[in-house]
């Protein structure tokens, strides 16, 4: 288990605020009960930040014939939609709900070349991955500029690589060609880089 780099700022703010409050408590000679409550409160907050930004080690079994889950969470819906870029083709859209208890990292569902769209797209942020056999997979996050996801600029990614992190968004959508064979179903609890969603 490791601590993800996106949490360093939050951790530093918690520690800074703790030292400021503690300094005021000592300066004004607050009672031991009040000081004890401060230590307990900030200790719990410190542990919450550590848990929220945890980065567990996962053993990824790469398989080019499979599409893995891009994030931890629960599958809220699976829909077949028309490809906006090619009206003759259909896509599967898998919507994943992420709770506060889930790991906040996204991983590459397939291996290939990554293209990051850093601009907001209808309140969404997108990252596309094109595999060597020309299969396109799109990972889409909700959010906005101040609390949106962070994508890591990588030209080539391997299946299961960490490709981004989710700050406070609560959902991830995955798009891939409807020619794939679905394995997952609505209501499934999934883990990024480990749960197979479809076969190519």
Automatic annotation (TrEMBL):
Coiled coil: none annotated. This is Phosphatidylserine decarboxylase. The chain crosses the membrane at residues 7-27, 33-53. One of its GO terms (biological process) is phospholipid biosynthetic process. GO terms for molecular function: phosphatidylserine decarboxylase activity. InterPro entries: PS_Dcarbxylase, PSD-A. The keyword Lyase applies. Keywords: Cell membrane, Decarboxylase, Lipid biosynthesis, Lipid metabolism, Lyase, Membrane, Phospholipid biosynthesis, Phospholipid metabolism, Pyruvate, Transmembrane, Transmembrane helix, Zymogen. It comes from the Bacteria.
